[in-house]
Amino acid sequence: MNALKNTNRKQHILVISQYFYPENFRINDICKEWVKRGYQVTVVTGIPNYPQGKFYRGYGWFKKGKEDYEGVKIIRLPIIPRGHGAAMLMLNYFSFVVSGFFWKLFTNVKADKVFIFEVSPMTQALVGVWYALRRKIPCYIYVQDLWPENVEIVTGIHNKHVIGTIDKMVNYIYKNCEKIFATSPSFVKRIEERNSAWDEDKSKVIYWPQYAEEFYKPVERRALSDMPQNNKFKIVFTGNIGYAQGLDILPKTAVQLKKDNVDCQFIIIGDGRYREEFEKEIEKNNVADMFVLLGRKKPEEIPYYLAWCDVAFISFADNPLFEMTIPAKLQSYMACGMPILAVASGETKRIIEEAECGKSCMLNDMELLVKNIQELIGNDKRELHNMGKHALKYFSCCFSKEKLMSVMEYYCGEENNNE
C-alpha cells in the first residue's frame, strides 16, 4: 500500500472480521495501525459475543449497530450468539453470512480494497469476496484457521458431502483473493498444495506470522490483588480455555507433581467453553491448591501478571493440524521475555528450539512434562533469565510489528498488484 500514500485521497480498506473490538483479536491492532499509517478503515463485524456465547452488555440486534474505535468505523451485522452447543455455533456462523449477503447488496460503503481476517469460521470470508467481486476491487485474506480441517476437528463431522461442500467454498474464496497471507510456513505449504490444482502461482501465498501489540513487553512487577503472594514456582497460561488448548493434561500433571512434593502453582488467566469441565477435573484430581483461575483480563494487563510468573505455558489438543499452528500467545509470551513451557510439536516446538527459550514435549507426554517442570524449577535463576532474553531477541527479529506491517503494505500495494 506504499503507493497509496502518494494519492490525495485516503485509500479505504474494508475489513471483514466476524470478531472485533471489544472482542480481543489482533485485527483490532492491525486496523489501528492502518489508521495511523493514513488509511480509512471500515470494519464489518458481528455483535460481540466471544467467547462467552452471549452478547456483551450494552450490545444487541438494535444497539450499537455502528461505532467508532480509534478512528476505525465499525458496522455490526445482526447475528445469532454462539451459545454453548454445536447447533448454536453453526447458527452463529451462518447468520453472519446471511446478514453479510444482504448488507453487500444495499450498502453505500465504497472501499478500494477488502481485507478478510480469517479465524474460524471461514464462511465469513464469503462476505468479503462477494463485496470485492461486486465492486471489482482486490481482495486479500489472512488465514489463521485451515478449513475444512478445522471443521472436522471442532465438530467431529467427517461426512464426505459436508466436507466436500466446505472444500468447494474454500477453493472459491482462495481463487478470488489476490494474496493469501498465512500464519505459519506449514499453513503456506498446505494452501499451496490445495491451490496447485488450479493456480500454479505460489507467490500468491505469503507467510505472515502474527505479531504482539506494543503493550506486550517486559515490565516490572506491580501489586496485583488477585495474584497469590507466595514463593511457589508459577507457571502461567493465558487465553482461551477451549478444547483445542489441551489443558486437560495439567490436572493429571499436578497430581504427579504433588506426589513428588514439587512446590509449584498453575496460574490460569482466561475463559472459554472448556473452563467448567476443566475446573471439575481439577477438583476430581484433588489438586485445587495447585491452581489459581483468575478469569479474563484486559490484554494490557497480561504483561503485569506474566511478570509475577516464572514460565509461560502453551499446549494443544492431540491433532496433526495443531502441528502446523503458531499460536498467537507464543508471540505475546516472547515479547514479554518469558521462558516457554510447551506441550506441542511442529511449528511451536521448532520456534522454541530455534530461539532456545524454553522446553517442550510431545502431546500427551505427561511424564516428560513433569520432568521439564522439575528441571525448570531446579535451574539457576540466571538460566531462566537467559531463556527469557532469547525469547525477546527472537521476537524482535522474527515477529516485529513494524517489519510485518510494512511487508503487508508491500504485498497489498497498488504498484505490486499492477506488476
Write down the Rg.
Answer: 22 Å
Overall shape: globular
Low-confidence stretches: 1-7, 415-419
| Percent in strands | 15-25%
Estimate the helix proportion, in percent: 40-55%
Q: What structural category characterises the helix and strand content?
A: alpha/beta
Count up the helices.
16
Number of strands: 14
Question: What would your notes on this structure say?
Answer:
The protein has helices at 27-36, 86-106, 125-135, 149-155, 160-175, 185-195, 249-259, 275-284, 302-306, 320-323, 328-335, 346-355, 366-378, 381-398, 401-411, 414-417, and strands at residues 12-16, 40-45, 66-69, 72-76, 113-118, 139-143, 179-182, 205-207, 233-238, 264-269, 291-295, 311-315, 340-343, 358-361. It has 419 residues and is an alpha/beta fold. The strands form two sheets. It has an eight-stranded mixed sheet, sandwiched between helices. It has a six-stranded parallel sheet with strand order 11-10-9-12-13-14, sandwiched between helices. Helix 7 packs across helix 13. The longest helix is centred in the N-terminal third of the chain and has 21 residues, at 86-106. The radius of gyration is 22 Å and the shape is globular. Mean pLDDT is 91; it is low at 1-7 and 415-419.
